[in-house]
Design goal:
By secondary structure, the chain is mainly α. 72% of the residues lie in helices and 0% in strands.
Length: 188
C-alpha cells in the first residue's frame, strides 16, 4: 500500500473514531466498532495503530499539531495557537469528549507528548545555532514547559465551554507567556 493509501485509511479510521466518540464514551468504543463504521476489517486497523489511543494520538498529531508546525518553526506563536484553537473549535464536540480522558491515556498526556515533540525539534534547531546561556535550560525542559502550558490552556478552554474566541484565547496565552506573574497580578 502506498503512503497515500495508508494515510487515507488512517483518515477513514480517524473519522470513524471521531463520529463514535461524539456519542459513545471513549472507554467503551471498541476497535470492531471503529472498523465496522469505517468499512474495513479489524486487521486493517492493526496495520495502522496498536489501539484506539494510538489512533487518538495520530488524530491530535495530524489535525492539531502538523497544521501549526510552520507557524511554530517561524516563531509565530500567537498565530500557531490561534490556528490550534480554531481547529479544536471546528470539532468542539469531539474534543470536549476526549479532553475528559484521564490516566495513562489522558488527552493531556497525549496532546503534551505531540506538542512537546514539535517544540523539541524547534528548540534543537535554535540550540545548534548558538551557545547555551543556562546549562539547566535544555531543549527538553523548555519544550516540556511550553507544551504543558499550551495544553493546559487548551483543555481549560475546552472544558469551560469555549466561551471566548480562539483568537482571544491565543492573545491571552501570549500575554501570560510574555509577562511575569508580578506583572499579570497587576492586571487582574
Amino acid at each position: 500500500m502506498t503512503s497515500q493509501g495508508k494515510r487515507d485509511t488512517a483518515r477513514l479510521l480517524a473519522d470513524s473514531f471521531k463520529e463514535l466518540a461524539c456519542r459513545t464514551p471513549i472507554e467503551k468504543i471498541t476497535v470492531k466498532e471503529i472498523t465496522d463504521r469505517a468499512g474495513v476489517i479489524r486487521p486493517t486497523f492493526y496495520n495502522h495503530f496498536q489501539d484506539k489511543y494510538e489512533l487518538l494520538e495520530w488524530i491530535i498529531s495530524q489535525d492539531l499539531i502538523e497544521p501549526i508546525r510552520p507557524f511554530v518553526r517561524s516563531g509565530l506563536t500567537t498565530q500557531a495557537m490561534t490556528f490550534l484553537f480554531l481547529n479544536v473549535e471546528k470539532e468542539k464536540e469531539f474534543y470536549l469528549k476526549v479532553s475528559r480522558l484521564e490516566g495513562q491515556n489522558s488527552f493531556f498526556g497525549i496532546s503534551q507528548h505531540c506538542l512537546q515533540s514539535l517544540l523539541e525539534e524547534v528548540c534543537e534547531e535554535h540550540r545548534a545555532r548558538r551557545e547555551r546561556r543556562y546549562e539547566w535550560l535544555t531543549p527538553e525542559r523548555l519544550a516540556q514547559y511550553y507544551g504543558q502550558s499550551m495544553v493546559f490552556v487548551m483543555i481549560e478552554w475546552i472544558q469551560s465551554g469555549m466561551t471566548i474566541s480562539a483568537e482571544e484565547l491565543a492573545e491571552l496565552y501570549q500575554y501570560m507567556m510574555s509577562h511575569s506573574l508580578e506583572d499579570a497580578l497587576k492586571d487582574l
